[in-house]
C-alpha cells in the first residue's frame, strides 16, 4: 500500500534517484499483448531531461532492461519487470541538505517518517526520477488500451500565467470523436494522426502560446527561479458503464493515481472548480441521441456521472506547483542543531517540470483505466 | 473495491435511497473507544434536510440503530454496524425517469453498468442519502481522532459567486494552532471552543458572507434552479511523518475518499491551482524553528510534502457542482425508444447541497486520517 | 482486512453472538441475478441448531431481513445487505467466564487483543453464530454459481473415528461429471438430483456410516464431551484456467476462506497429506483426451495444478477440532487475580459442530469461487 | 493480487525460470533495519541445487543484486528490490513439452489461462525457481523478526514413509521456550544456538532418521522416480494477541502464503487432522499460570485460538506432493492435435524437493508474520 497501485493490473515501483537501479513490476497484464519497445522508448524520451532549456542538466540513457514477462515481445502472463540503471550521479551535490531540508521538498517529512534513515541523495525514493518507471508502465498500458480503441491525450494548458487554448471536449464542441481534440500545434486541425500528439515534446493546441510558455520558463530560469502550470488530459474511447459507485468511482481512482505524481496540488474533472460558480440549468449536460448513441450536448461532467463513464471524453486538469528546487537562497533549519539556516540548493533541476510531466499524467491515467477495464 | 474504503479501519456502506434501510459497517476501530451517541446524532443533524430554505423537503428521523460493535458505549473490537430506516419515500416521483435519465445524474450510467437492473428510485445507491452512513462513520472516527488531538474543521468558502474569507491556515498567518482558524461566524476570534464549529448549520468565517450565500440559494430556488460551491477543510494536530511515498500518499488517500462524495468535481491542497501561477521563490514554504518545532512560514503546501504530513495544518478545498435536480425542464432521451425527450424532474431536492455537504467532507477526511494513523 | 474477504465480490460480516443483530454486506454481486429466498432459507436451516441430538439447544428463527441490494428479488448492483436479529440470549451463562477463559476458545486471545474490551457473551464476534451471515452469503453465491454450471457439494467424511466412504472424485473413478459423486445416503447412485444433497441435514455417502456417526456424537454428549470430524467438499463445473500463479492461486484463496471457519485446524487438496507418502509415478495425474476435453485419469491434484483449475473436480478436506465447550470441568486461570481456576462451562453448545459446519464449508468455498470467476 | 502478498510489508515477485532475471520487491519494511547480506546468502544456499544427491543438477550462482532500498546496509524506507540473473539455461530441454503438458505440472493450466502465450521454458513463472526471491524476502524478514525475539524454525518431519521425531511443541513437553524445540540432529538437546538449525542443509531432529530419508531419496532417484514429504514449522516469540477475527486470522494468513509454495497440498495447525479424532476433553489446552504468564499445558491448538496467537509456539505442518518431474515415461496429450502422447521428461529436476523447501516454508511464514506484526 505504498509504492504500488491497482487491483487487477498491479504496478509496483522501486528505486531511488541515486540507487543502483530503479524500475517497475507490472503484474496482471493480459497475456498475448505485443509490446512495441521502440514506441515505449519514444514515450520515455518525452520525460527525459537534458535536451532543452526547460529541463534538468542530468542526462540518463534511460534504456529499459526487461527482466521478465515478455516472450517474443508479447506479454506471457508473468509479471513484466523492467530495470533502469542510474548512471549520472553527483552525490556530493546533496551533502549540504542531509540535515537541512529543502523547502517544499520531501526532505523533512522523509527524515521524520524514516527516523533519518531515508536516502537523501537526489531526493531518494521521492525523486521525480521515479516517474521514469511510472512512464514505462504507462507506455505499456497505453499500447494495450489503444488496441481497445482508448486514446489518452494531454496538452499543457498553462505555464505560470501563460495559457493554451482549452480542449473543446469540455464545451462539447469537440467534433473529433473518435480520437481527440487535443492536437499539439494543430489548432484543432484533424489532418494528422491524433494518437501522435502525446509524443510531442511541448504539446500545446496553440503553437504560439507554446512559444510564449517556453519564453516564460527561460525567464524564470535566468533569475534562478521556477514555474508551475496546468496539464489538461482527455481520454476518448471509454465505453459508458466503466467505474463503481461511491469509493471505487472513476474520479477517485484517477485522483488516487494522479496525486502520486510529484508536484500535483490540484485536480478537477470537466468544468471542475468553475462548476461551483454555475447554476444547474447552465451546468447540466443535456442528453441527446446521436445516431443511436446517447451523447451529451456539453461535457461539464468530464465524461463521468456518478463515478461511472458516460461515453463522452473523460477530461481533467492537474495543477503543478513550481519546481521546489531553485537557485535563490532560501530559509531552512538544521534538523540536528535546531538552528535556522540559509540554504543554497546545488544539484541539477528543472526550471519547470510541467513539459516533462505530460507523459506522467498520461501514464497515471493509463494504468488506472487499464486496471479498471481489465476483467470487465 | 466498490462501496468500501480503508486498510486498517474499513468502511463498508450499503443501502439505497428507498431501500428498507441503509447503513455502514466500520471494521477495525481500536477497541475501548467511548462513542458519544448524542454527539454522533448532533453531527448527523448537520446533513439532515427539511429544516431550512436550502435543503430538500424530504425529512427523515435518521435515528441510528447500532446492531453490533459497541458494549456499554465502547468499541469492543468487533465491527461496528449501524442501520438507518428509510421511511419518507415517494416512489411515484421517480416513475417518469425509469428510462429517461436525469441530466448530470447517475441514472444513465447506472442503467448501462447494471443492464437496467439498477434501483432508480431516489437515485438508488447513487443517492446523496448514502452520505448519511458516511457521516455516521465520520462522526465515530472524529471522536477517536479528537482523543489523539486531531481536529477537522471546515467552512463554506463559496456558494456560486459569493465568497467567504479564506482560512488563514494557507497564508500561514493562522495563529490558532493547536485548534484551527476556521471559526464559524467568528471572524477568526478564538474566544470559543474551536471544536464546535463543525456543528454549525451554515459554517462561514464571515457571518455576513454567509447571509449573502443563503440569499443566493433562495434566489436560485425561486427560479427552480440550483447552485454549487466550494468547501474548505482544515485538519490540525496531525504529527509530521504520516503518509506514504508515491501512491499511498496523503493527498492520494484524501482525494480517493473526497471524490466519493456526490457532486465533487475538483480538489486542491494548499495553494492548489493558484500554485501553478506562482514562482518557486514565492510558493516555497520556508522552514523555521518554533520553540523546538519545525514549522513553515507559509503553508502553500497545505501541510503535505512528498505525500507526507509536515506538521502544519492540512488544508484542502473541494468544488461542488450545482445540484443536478432542478425544476426547469431539461432535454433528455428515452433509453427504450431512443427518442429525445423533455424531462421535468419531480421529487424533492436541495437547491444547493453545499451546506449539507460540509459534514460529508469532514467525514470523508476523518475516515482516511483515522485509517492512516491506526497502526502507525 | 479483518472480517471481510474478496476482491470483486466482497463479503463484510458483522455482529456478535449476543449483539442486537448480526449480518453481512455482499458488495459486487453481478446485477440482475434472481435470488430465491426460499432456497436461501432452506440452506440456512442446515446450520440451525436446536432440532437434533448433535446441536446446541439455542434456537433462533434466523429470519433474514434484506435491507438493500435486491429489487423485485433481483440483485440491483448495490451492496446486498442482510440482518438477523439475536433473540434467544442467556447472558448470565457467561458471567463466570468474563475473566476465566474457556480452554481452546478465543476468550483469552480476544481479551489480550482488545485489552479486555471484547464482548465475552456467547463468544462475541468469535462465536460460531457468525457463520450464519457467512452461510447467507454462501447461499446467495451458490445460486449465482449454479447458473454458471458450478455445483459445490460436501459430505461428512468422518466424525471422531467413524468414517464415511470417500468421494470418488479423488480416485478418478467418479463417473458422475457433470454433477458430483457426493450423494447423501445414496452410495454413489445417481438417480436423484445431485444439487440437492447439500440440503441434507447429515450428509454422508454411506447411510449406515452416518448412523454410526450420530451414535458416536450421542455417546460423547452423554459423557459431557465433544467430537470433531472431517468434511470433504467437491466442486464441479469450474472451467480450466481459473486461478493465479503464486499467491493468488486457488488453493491459497480457498485456504484463506476455509480457515476462517471456527474450529478448522487442517486442510488438504486432492490426495493431500497422503501425497507426501506417494511416489511421483503413483501420484501424477496422467492426461488423456475425452471427447475433445483434456481430462486426467486420477485426480490426486484435486483439480488444481500450479494454483489454477484444470477442469477436474476441485476436491478438498477440512479437519475440525472437537467443540471446545464441554460440560466436564477444566483447568483455566483467572486473568485478574492470576490464580489457577477450575472452570465449569454453562451455556448451550453442540457436542459436535461438524454436521452444522457442512454449509459453512460450502459457503466459504462459494464466496471464493464466485469472487474468482467474476470479471474473468 | 497475483504474485504479490501483504498489506503493510508487501512482497511482489517477478521472473520466470529462464527469463533474463528474477527477483522481488519488498515494500514497507521498517526503516533503519540492518540487513546482513552474508546471512541472507547463507539462507539462500539452503534452497540452492546441484550440490547433493537430492537436488537438481541445475546450478546457479544465485547472487543477489540489490537495486534499491538499502543505504549503508540498512533499510531506508524505500522498497527493497533485488534481482538474480538466470544463467544456467537449457531451453532445448523444454521443446517437447511446448504442447504436451507434463502431468501434475502447471503446463496445461498455464496454457489455458494464458491462451498459449505462457513461457513454458523451465516452467516459466510457475517454476520452483521463483522460490529464490521468495527466500530472499524471507531471509530479510527473518532478520527483522529476530530482533523482535521471533524465531522461525522447521525440520523435515517425513520423506515418503520415513518419519522424523515430532517437535515437542505440540505435546506441550517442549521445555525450550524461548527458542525452540526443533534442533537439527540434536534430539532436543539445547546445547547449541537454536537459531542456527534452519541453516542446516537437511534438518531433522533425529539424525538417524535423516540418514534413512536421504537413502529413500536416492532409491527413488535411482528408479527415475520422486518422493514427497512433510515439513514441520515452529514459530516462537510471538506475543499473545496477534491476528484478526474471522478472515484475517493467523491461520488464514499463513495458509494463504504457504499454499503459494509449489507442491504444497496440505496444511495443518497444532494437532491438525488428528484433532478430528480426539474428544474435547483430550484436545482442549488447559490454561495455567507460569510465573505470571498465561500458558497452556498442551499445544494442540498450535499457538492459535480464534485466529489469534495465544503466546504458545505456532506449530504447523505442510504436506508436499512428490516432484512431478520424473524420468519414467508418462501419459499426456498433444494440445494441438488432440492426440494422446507418451511423454519423456528431459531437463534437470529434484528427486525430492522437500529439503530445499524447508527455507521456503520458513520464508512464507516469515513474510506473513512480519506483515502482521508491523504497525501493531
* Distance N to C terminus of chain A: 23 Å
Radius of gyration of chain A: 21 Å
The largest β sheet of chain A comes out as: 5 strands, antiparallel
Query: What is the CATH-assigned architecture of chain A?
Result: 4-Layer Sandwich
Q: What's the assembly state of these chains?
A: homotetramer
- The helix/strand order of chain A is EEEHEEEEHHEEHHEHEHEEEEEEEH
Brief write-up:
Chain A has 376 residues and is α+β, with helices and mostly antiparallel strands.
Task: Record the SSE blueprint.
The structure is a homotetramer of 376-residue chains.
Chain A: E1 4-5, E2 10-15, E3 21-27, H1 37-45, E4 65-68, E5 70-71, E6 74-75, E7 80-85, H2 107-113, H3 131-147, E8 151-159, E9 162-163, H4 168-171, H5 207-222, E10 229-236, H6 250-258, E11 264-269, H7 280-283, E12 287-290, E13 293-296, E14 304-305, E15 308-309, E16 314-320, E17 330-333, E18 340-343, H8 354-373
Antiparallel strand pairs in A: 1-2, 2-3, 3-7, 4-7, 5-6, 8-9, 8-10, 10-16, 11-16, 12-13, 14-15, 17-18
Structure description:
Four copies of one chain form a homotetramer. With 376 residues, chain A is an alpha+beta fold. Chain A has a single domain, classed as Chorismate synthase AroC (Chorismate synthase, AroC fold, 4-Layer Sandwich). In chain A, 23% of the residues lie in helices and 22% in strands. Chain A contains eight helices and 18 strands. Chain A has a five-stranded antiparallel β-sheet with strand order 1-2-3-7-4, covered by helices on one side. In chain A, 66% of the residues are buried.
